Amino acid sequence: MTTKVELNASANASEQTQIPNPPPEHVAIIMDGNGRWAASHGKPRSEGHRAGTENLRRIIEAFIRHGVRYLTLFAFSTENWNRPDDEVQTLLELVDSVIRSEVNELHSEGIRLRHIGRIDRLPTDLRRSIRESIELTKDNTRLTLCVAFDYGGRAEIVDAVRSMIADDVQAEDVNEDLLRRYMYTNGIPDPDLVIRTSGEQRLSNFLLWQAAYAEYYSTSVYWPDFNEAEVDRALEAYSRRKRRFGKVR
Ligand code: FPP
């Protein structure tokens, strides 16, 4: 006969042996706080974006070391066009110059580049850089780095519906699997973890469809200060989450 004490003991044992989450396969980051970082250092906003861009390499490497296979970075939203012209210009130039200067190194490290978002509104040179870097790195398998540029989750759903209509998809054939294949992220697993820096607690139109069951982690640290120790903290928090996907454990 099982006694009350034995029942408690076995409940404790099962809690202790609970396997923590393996590293997330896909991490998506809302890199927020560049402007506030700049203000806190008495610098113009453009310097915040520059510092944020210089932060990319160490963070990409840190996630690779932790076994992450897909990393998505929210670099420019569909709403960011409404910022002052000089700031938009800075962001367009930064992304173009970082792609041009880093693509060979990223390629030699086995990183595959993907772009998610609308491409038609970007300057011709940037479009070319994006297309060439995607082509060059398309067979790499160590990490898939998705750059969300002119990206909006709502725009993505609108574009998916438009493409389905253009393909003559019939209403009765529409289901979640089909819609998933019309998203910009086709072929990329859903994010397991969404990180937002700078303390804000919202998704801001980021991966609305894909993040349905992602774990959300917010840190007050501004993006340029988000370092390897912060990566460890985010992954440690993730490892303690109980992911249920709407089911009962
Ligand atoms: C949010 O900070 C940050 C952005 C809108 C831009 C992020 C882009 C980069 C770091 C460049 C990335 C380049 C590549 C290639 C991925 P904010 O300006 O909204 O900051 P604030 O809320 O403090 O004003």
UniProtKB/TrEMBL annotation:
One of its GO terms (cellular component) is cytosol. It is an enzyme of class 2 (transferase). Keywords: Transferase. One of its GO terms (molecular function) is ditrans,polycis-undecaprenyl-diphosphate synthase [(2E,6E)-farnesyl-diphosphate specific] activity. Its cofactor is Mg(2+). Its EC number is 2.5.1.-. Residues 1-24 are annotated as: Disordered. Residues 1-19 have a biased composition (Polar residues). It catalyses: n isopentenyl diphosphate + (2E,6E)-farnesyl diphosphate = a di-trans,poly-cis-polyprenyl diphosphate + n diphosphate. CDD domains: Cis_IPPS. Pfam families: Prenyltransf (PF01255). Belongs to the UPP synthase family. This is Alkyl transferase.
